[in-house]
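Bug report (template v2)

What were you trying to do?
Predict the complex of my protein with calcium ion.

What happened?
Run completed; filing so the output is reviewed.

Input:
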Amino acid sequence: MKKHTLYTATALLLLSCTATHAGLTSFINDEPGFATATAALTMSSQNFNSFTEDSANFGNGGSLTIGDLTLSGTVTSTTRNFIDAGTINSYAGFDFDGTPFLPSQVGTSDSLTITFAGDVTAFSADFNFFADLRTSYFTLNNTANDTLDVYFNANEINNIGFVSDTPFTTITITSSATDGFSMDNLTYQAIPEPSSMALAGLTCIGAFFIRRSFKR
Ligand SMILES: [Ca+2]
Ligand SMILES: [Ca+2]
Ligand SMILES: [Ca+2]
């Protein structure tokens, strides 16, 4: 019995030593798998469908905040980071389902960054034309500095998701060569709202004053 436990411990140790990204689990076109892996988490989503007009371009040094997400980009060669809403008219074929979405393009020295208002451990989104001709990368800013390389053979919509055992606050998408793509239907771990945290704080202060008035 004791011997069995020892073997199991040794096997686990070997596994964690050989895996390149032991803490990052990816789900490529596996939405059921992602849903199972995140079943214990509260999730948020963003489909950009509240946009009725194209958003201002944030491709080169600008940013766009939507709820608890901030999108920012450094694109030197083109201006292709905005929410395409209203009469969707850009990049034929990059559209998903006739709803607002984010068209993007990153060159070798460019990036698209998603910044969350707090720590998250899970993220997924639909991508169209992503990494169809070259490799694009997701880089998380967690302490493990995880990188997920993604390559697809065909121009098609793919769902890319990952769960990390090390919380992260940003996802940076870069590419080995200039790569146009689009993104929609983001799903990510919910971030506690500051208002509810402030409310908890006020409750504490309230309790303090109630206790004080009772003491008088
Ligand atoms: Ca949409
Ligand atoms: Ca448009
Ligand atoms: Ca592409």
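What did the reviewer find?
The radius of gyration is 21 Å. The longest strand covers residues 157-175.
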